[in-house]
Amino acid sequence: MRPSGRKLDEMRTVSIETGVVKHAEGSCLIKVGDTHVLCTATIEDRPPPFLKGTGLGWVTAEYGMLPRATGSRTRREAATGKQQGRTVEIQRLIGRALRAGVDRAALGERQIVIDCDVLQADGGTRCAAITGGWVALRLAANRLLQTRAITSDPLPDHIAAVSCGIYAGQTVLDLDYAEDSAAGTDSNFILTGRGRLVEVQMSAEGATFAREDMNRLLDLAEAGVQQLVAAQKAAIA
Fold first, then answer.
1. Structural domains of the chain ordered from first start
2. Are 188 and 173 a contacting pair, CB within 8 Å?
3. Are 158 and 212 in contact (CB under 8 A)?
4. pLDDT of residue 78
5. CA 157/CA 146 separation, integer angstroms
6. Residue 162 phi/psi, 5° resolution?
């Protein structure tokens, strides 16, 4: 039995509310169970210097966790003068994942910055940030299309992410913190709406795993991502 009482292949409740930030070109609040992440998209009409003159656009991301997103207060990274390694790793992951679903030529020489702020954390914050970040990105791309700043859709497919793991000897979908902190194997799967793999992070925390376990986790992830894509479609409809 999972701590939450969910079935092995059962996602937490997912909701995505759009238009939650007035000034952002795209925004949403994604809730995956008790993990809540605010995602915004900002359009900058210039690319990074290394892309100037190439005709290509860029998507990047920043990630942060509010001090009381967790059970005890975490100091703001600005107060320490530098970002933690975990923060840097996660925001690079978010940027890589979202760029995998972007036609950068269609985007043109501009940059879209996705900001992901964790309001409340209960496991799977990076996956929620990627899934919600895509919605914010989609809304920003829609604005560019509506204003005719671009003429071709730069987002040919959805991008979403979900965690899976081996908890108490069972392969389970969408780990919350209680499961994530005790899982023998922990993984994050990022897929397109058509089921193409973007990135897989998988590690044995307490015990090794077999290839058959990896296949079962991928099967769970594919089903979970389809549910997330359905939630994305409903949010932007």
1. 14-236 (3.30.230.70)
2. no
3. no
4. 85
5. 19
6. -150, 150
Asked if 161 and 131 count as a contact pair (C-beta separation under 8 A), the reply is yes
Contact assessment for residue 150 and residue 98, using Cβ atoms and an 8 Å cutoff: no
- 126 in a known ligand binding site: yes
Structure confidence by residue, pLDDT tens digits, 95-151: 999 999 999 999 999 999 999 999 999 999 999 999 999 999 999 999 999 999 999
Is 138 marked as a binding-site residue? no
Helix axes 125-146, 85-99, angle to 10 degrees: 40
pTM for this entry: 0.96
The whole-chain average pLDDT of the chain stands at 96
Check the annotation: does 2 bind a ligand. no
* Integer Cα distance of 106 and 109 in angstroms: 9
- Determine phi and psi for 58, rounding to 5 degrees: -150, 145
The DSSP secondary structure of the chain, one letter per residue, reads --TT---TTPPPPEEEEE--SSSSSEEEEEEETTEEEEEEEEEESS--GGGTTS---EEEEEEEE-TTSSSS----HHHHTS--HHHHHHHHHHHHHHHTT--HHHH-S-EEEEEEEEEE-SS-HHHHHHHHHHHHHHHHHHHHHHTTS-SS-S--S-EEEEEEEEETTEEEES--HHHHTT-SEEEEEEEETTS-EEEEEEEESSS---HHHHHHHHHHHHHHHHHHHHHHHHHH-
CB 121 within 8 A of CB 178: no
